[in-house]
Write a structure and sequence with these properties.
CATH superfamily of the largest domain: Thiol:disulfide interchange protein DsbD, N-terminal domain
Low-confidence stretches: 1-22
Helix content: under 10%
Radius of gyration: 20 Å
CATH architecture of the largest domain: Sandwich
Distance between the termini: 29 Å
Order of helices and strands: HEEEEEEEEEEEHEEEEEEEEEE
Number of helices: 2
CATH topology of the largest domain: Immunoglobulin-like
Number of strands: 21
Largest sheet: 7 strands, mixed
CATH class of the largest domain: Mainly Beta
Strand content: over 45%
Mean pLDDT: 88
Length: about 270
């Protein structure tokens, strides 16, 4: 019940959402074909160019927004395609927080294929939300041949360089998650041993299950430990099993972010 109410309130407060259709002047997709690594993976990217002043969203869009959804098809030699997420902006607007990218974004792709694969054919669709005064879901299709050769692309390299730091890179210590049942789900409190950021700190917690609603985190710091507490509501409307190894915690501080995969029992 609370999830439905919160979703309704967020929708009422959010900009108007229109049905998905073609808006060629708002969002344009092109594929950067990239290069093949010595290890055999192919590094490519999808670039989205938006009309000035428009925003599209990160994988956890905040109070209102549509997370990008990739659908891939292509050569039978391809075994997996992994999108990478440049660090987004965290924007407060009229009491609502959005997490995303203004004007343009490059999503690098790591494409794994058979060792003897030649040129690779990759096609698919990317569904994104774009917002200004109104929010519009846009479907963008692509179909590209990725050559077996190629040279490193500075645009893709720059996007990869803006990814969140790993736990090791950011000198993060122990990360624990205490889980308590609440009436309509779970309350999770993460304790993160992480150096203080130069700017105010903001935390996003994800479960890996898009059907689980997760509240904005209440964040506090005590010395070297950052704590973040969220409520999680499952469609069942009650407590549910949560795998701590699938919990993903992102700590934002200024222009930097830290990506933490999993936590231990707290």
């Amino acid at each position: 019940m609370r999830k439905n109410l919160l979703t309704l309130l967020a929708f009422m407060a959010a900009p108007t959402v229109l049905p998905a259709q073609s808006f060629d002047d708002l969002a344009v997709l092109d594929v950067l074909p990239g290069w093949r690594t010595d290890a055999g993976a192919h590094i490519a990217a999808v670039r989205i160019t938006l009309s000035p002043g428009w925003i599209t969203y990160w994988r956890a869009p905040g109070d209102a927004g549509i997370p990008p959804q990739f659908t891939f098809t292509g050569s039978t030699a391809i075994t997996s395609i992994q999108p990478h997420w440049p660090t987004p902006e965290v924007v407060d607007d009229k009491g609502m927080r959005s997490i995303g990218y203004y004007d343009s974004v490059v999503f690098p792709l790591t494409i794994d294929a058979a060792a003897d694969a030649g040129d690779l054919s990759v096609s698919g669709e990317l569904t994104i939300g774009v917002c200004e005064e109104i929010c519009i879901p846009v479907n963008l299709e692509f179909d590209e041949t990725l050559p077996a050769g190629g040279a490193p692309d500075p645009i893709i390299l720059a996007a990869l360089a803006t990814q969140a730091l790993t736990k090791a890179q950011a000198n993060v210590g122990a990360v624990t998650c205490a889980i308590d049942p609440i009436g309509d789900g779970l309350r999770l409190t993460a304790q993160i041993a992480v150096p203080r950021a130069e700017a105010s700190e903001f935390v996003v917690i994800e479960t890996g299950d898009p059907s689980v609603w997760v509240s904005e985190a209440d964040v506090a710091r005590e010395g070297p430990t950052l704590s973040a507490t969220v409520d999680m509501v499952h469609p069942s409307g009650g407590p549910f099993a949560l795998d701590r190894s699938g919990v993903r915690i992102t700590v934002f501080g200024g222009e930097k972010a830290i990506d933490i995969q999993g936590c231990s029992a707290g």
